[in-house]
Design goal:
CATH architecture of the largest domain: Orthogonal Bundle
CATH topology of the largest domain: Cyclin A, domain 1
Number of strands: 2
InterPro entries: Thioredoxin-like_sf (IPR036249)
Order of helices and strands: HHHHHHEEH
Structural class: mainly alpha
Shape: globular
Strand order of the largest sheet: 1-2
Radius of gyration: 17 Å
Organism: Pseudomyxococcus hansupus
Protein name: Thioredoxin
Length: 184
């Protein structure tokens, strides 16, 4: 038996705007190396070789919001939503592709069974931008300030299980504690 979950986007760097200079690239490399060491997540550093890049996470978040909605509308298995989210992460971090380019999402759409021709107009529409911005606000309203954050919702309310990286055993222990809290 699994635990139902919902992936929300929080907007790590919506809008970007950080100067693409040696200091920012060193900052990113350090964090990516740390994440790779802790989690085993593969990273490529090709992106850091670019002369310019706006590290704007809003388009990737918006793409996921659109894909999640489209997959829900087609009653695709909920695991496909996770597959879409993981594919965006993989293509950016492990393959060094640019998620600000709409073409970035073409192969992801194909992999999860969404027609790119249907995805693209929704991705570029103002409604998708507004829905993504609203999700960012909701995440902040729930106290999300680090990524990833895992929240647990029950009759007792919403509780942060992890803010930032947590091991499997840490997550299980946090879930056990949260599940034992008295209901309101």
């Amino acid at each position: 038996m699994g635990i139902p979950f919902h992936i929300w986007v929080g907007g790590l760097r919506p809008g970007g705007g950080d100067a693409w200079n040696a200091g920012f690239k060193a900052f990113l490399r350090h964090h990516w190396e740390e994440i790779a060491a802790r989690t085993g997540q593969p990273f490529t550093y090709r992106l850091l070789e670019r002369a310019s890049f706006n590290y704007d996470t809003e388009p990737a978040c918006r793409a996921f919001v659109v894909l999640r909605a489209m997959l829900h509308e087609t009653r695709a298995p909920s695991t496909r939503r996770y597959d879409a989210f993981a594919a965006v992460q993989q293509k950016f971090y492990a393959q060094g592709e640019d998620p600000t380019a709409p073409s970035f999402y073409e192969s992801i759409c194909a992999d999860v069974g969404v027609a790119f021709e249907s995805f693209l107009p929704r991705f570029e529409h103002a409604d998708a931008k507004a829905a993504t911005a609203q999700e960012f606000r909701e995440a902040r309203g729930l106290g999300v300030s680090a990524f990833p954050t895992v929240l647990y919702r029950s009759d007792a309310g919403t509780k942060v299980l992890a803010s930032g990286y947590a091991t499997g055993p840490q997550m299980i222990a946090a879930l056990d504690r949260a599940a034992q809290e008295p209901r309101r």
